[in-house]
Amino acid sequence: MVRGSLSAERRASGYVLAILGAAGLLALLVPVRDNLDLASEALLFLLLVVTTALVGGLGPALLASVLCSGLLNFFFTAPYHTFRIHEASDIVSVLVFALVAAMVSWVVDIAARRASAVREAAELEAGNRLRTALLAAVGHDLRTPLATAKAVVSGLRSREVTLDERDRRELLETADDALDRLGALIDDLLDLSRLQTGALPVRTRSVPLDDVVTRALDDLGVVPRAVILDLPEELPEVIVDPGLLERVIANLVANAQRYAPDPPLLTAVVHDDRLELRVVDHGPGIPLADRDRVFVPFQRLGDSGPAGLGLGLALSRGLVDAMGGELAMEETSGGGLTVVVSLPTEPTEPAAPRAGVRG
């Protein structure tokens, strides 16, 4: 590992393992030492050294090597309970054990450091890619609505242009839409960052699905026929955070409307203790090989298309996961994409048996 990368807790655990492990192994082997040869006992102590190196690094492993070498000499080579060794072969065995234990500790530590360095390099590269994507997104997607709003305000303040009431109203609507897009993008960024750091509060409770869908579509401001609703009656209540599920539904519907020529379909089915909310569209769909990539923040297939940071699906999956649900994709029959949101449901009480009627 990179020097100093092991936490103090890991190193402390390694020292504890070296001491207690050596003591425990000693208590286990002394009663049966007459039935084992020195090589078997040395291998068991070597296993402890390797395990200590994996847990605590080089320092604890070297301590384990010293302890195990001493114990092997004192308790398992004749004469017992002294550091003298009568047999030359036993002297060689103990010395070789000490040397091999130290070398193994060193090699295990080097391998662990290299593996850690590779992981840190990969994380750094991923972070750099994320920052690059964020800067590119900020440079275009966030600046575009801001520039639109700024241009409208500048036009309204200009004394060189005469505007009638209709023109002023259209410009104000344009600025309002641009600021709404900007606010939504910033909200997505903040929520995604809170999700990644575990700071987004999730408060689940039992709620009717149709109430959440209605509020989500109201917030989205869909026009008539922009969404087709086909929610069965008598659906069980879902255990979700209503506000977060509204965000998910609004994101998925907006995404379907953006890419599909026809209004998307919202429907639901129940499987055991799960309710599947389906957002079905007949747009271009997403190739199977790209379905995992669209859940990565700042990814939009082809890096082109409608404005947006590419956060909608990434944020939606994160919110669904945080509520104990699952979000997956399927191909729509006849072409297109179906996004399936699986949610836990409130258990339904079994119907009370009817009283029998005597004949």
Brief overview, please?
The protein is of the alpha+beta class and 359 residues long.
If you had to describe this structure to a student in words, what would you say it looks like?
The structure is a single chain. The chain contains 8 helices and 7 strands; from the N terminus they run αααααβαββαββαββ. The protein is α+β, with helices and mostly antiparallel strands and 359 residues long. The protein folds into 3 domains: 8-122, no CATH class; 133-197, Helix Hairpins, CATH 1.10.287; 205-344, 2-Layer Sandwich (Heat Shock Protein 90), CATH 3.30.565. Strands 2-4-5-7-6 form a 5-stranded mixed sheet. It is elongated, with a radius of gyration of 33 Å. The model is unreliable at 302-309 and 351-359 (pLDDT under 50).
